[in-house]
Amino acid sequence: MSDFKNIKIKDVIDEDFVNYKKPAMFIATNTCSFKCEKEDPNIHCQNEAIVNQPTIVENINKLIKRYLCNTISESIVFGGLEPLDQLDELISFINKFRKYSNDDIVIYTGYNETEVYDKIDKLILANKHRGKIIIKYGRFKANNKKRYDNILGIELASSNQYAICYE
Count of alpha carbons within 13 Å of 73, Cβ hemisphere only? Predict the structure, then answer.
């Protein structure tokens, strides 16, 4: 696995209060296979606004410093498109981040556990029990009831979505 110095992203929100129970730096990742829309042609990506944003190549160490200098954010949330489609960059970020902080890392994925079992193992290994990694699983389903998730402390868009905490 390569050690990436940069990560391709679409956006950064320094103080996000929507995607996790703790204030977070939200990092919108760059890629997605659009599995939700492929499974259900009636679905339009809930992150459609992010898709057409230009790609930003951001230095991982600068992003981490930006996070550490913010006195409000207490966690990092990766989402927007599909963070697990950028696994090597994500692992590089986690390895570098864990040198400075044990704050929670939340990863929003549209995959289910069985689709990404091998990727999750690599993420957990990269984390090396140095803080929580929380993964929100499940694709967005149109016309599906929302559900409150106790781990994330927020309401999720579809009842099939759920979070698991790995420590």
Answer: 28
| Its pTM surpasses 0.70 | yes
Per-residue pLDDT tens over the stretch 75-107: 999 998 899 999 999 999 999 999 999 999 999
Calpha distance 128→113 (Å, rounded): 20
For residues 167 and 84, what is the distance between their CA atoms, to the nearest angstrom?
18
Map tokens 């950028």 to a residue: 86
